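Quick one:
INPUT:
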């Protein structure tokens, strides 16, 4: 039986971008830290879409740096050079969501799964995040993403959900023209819909039980997640079950 290829989004899916709040709180207090973290994530993603549409490129790391500057400035604050470096260092060590350890342990115990990280981050940024994340360092599944299992969009100089990024991944895993054999696991609706548009199967990780799938663009183009789950562990379990049926 051919292996099951799963592409895991990293930031916001495996790693919690909210875990940066602790570092920011040391500079601005709890309330402002939460606001800056939330807005920085918003601008980080917005920048990737805007710059791709413009036909320009800056690395995800550089856009992340500017997103924190933007978010702080909106509150009348400014990160000093030392504070900025502390924030970027903390971003390299984001903590994983609670259920991720169980998910990766299940992947490690399932030889039929070929797991990859598929991210907007640069390869060095991804590798650093995987190696320094506190909870991933303790997980027995933390070594399932060696360098050969990290796929970055950086060589393309364009960001997800550009169709070229999904085609690039398919080429890396030798599944060109077989996109339907690839699973994406992501908490980001734009990524989920982008994967579906490329012919992949996708699992949306919805950690907000009060709100279901409400993505308007999904409705406009008629593309929805293949599955909706509450956590990454459930995503892996259901993909395994699906492939056995």
């Amino acid at each position: 039986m051919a292996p099951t290829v799963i592409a895991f989004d990293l930031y916001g899916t495996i790693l919690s971008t909210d875990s940066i709040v602790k570092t920011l709180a040391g500079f601005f207090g709890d309330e402002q830290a939460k606001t800056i973290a939330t807005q920085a994530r918003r601008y980080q993603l917005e920048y990737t879409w805007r710059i791709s549409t413009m036909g320009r490129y800056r690395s995800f790391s550089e856009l992340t740096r500017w997103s924190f500057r933007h978010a702080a400035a909106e509150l009348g604050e400014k990160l000093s050079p030392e504070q900025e470096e502390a924030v970027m260092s903390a971003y390299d060590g984001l903590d994983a969501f609670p259920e991720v350890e169980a998910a990766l342990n299940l992947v490690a115990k399932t030889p039929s799964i070929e797991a990859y990280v598929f991210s907007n981050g640069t390869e060095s940024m991804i590798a650093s995040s995987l190696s320094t994340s506190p909870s991933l360092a303790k997980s027995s599944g933390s070594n399932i993403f060696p360098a050969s299992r990290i796929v970055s969009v950086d060589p393309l100089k364009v960001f997800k959900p550009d169709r070229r990024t999904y085609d690039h991944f398919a080429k890396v895993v030798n599944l060109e023209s077989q996109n339907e054999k690839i699973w994406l696991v992501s908490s980001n609706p734009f990524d989920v819909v982008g994967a579906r548009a490329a012919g992949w199967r996708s699992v949306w990780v919805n950690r907000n039980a009060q709100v279901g799938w409400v993505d308007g663009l999904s409705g406009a183009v008629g593309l929805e997640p293949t599955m909706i789950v509450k956590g990454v562990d459930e995503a892996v379990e259901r993909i395994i079950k699906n492939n056995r049926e």
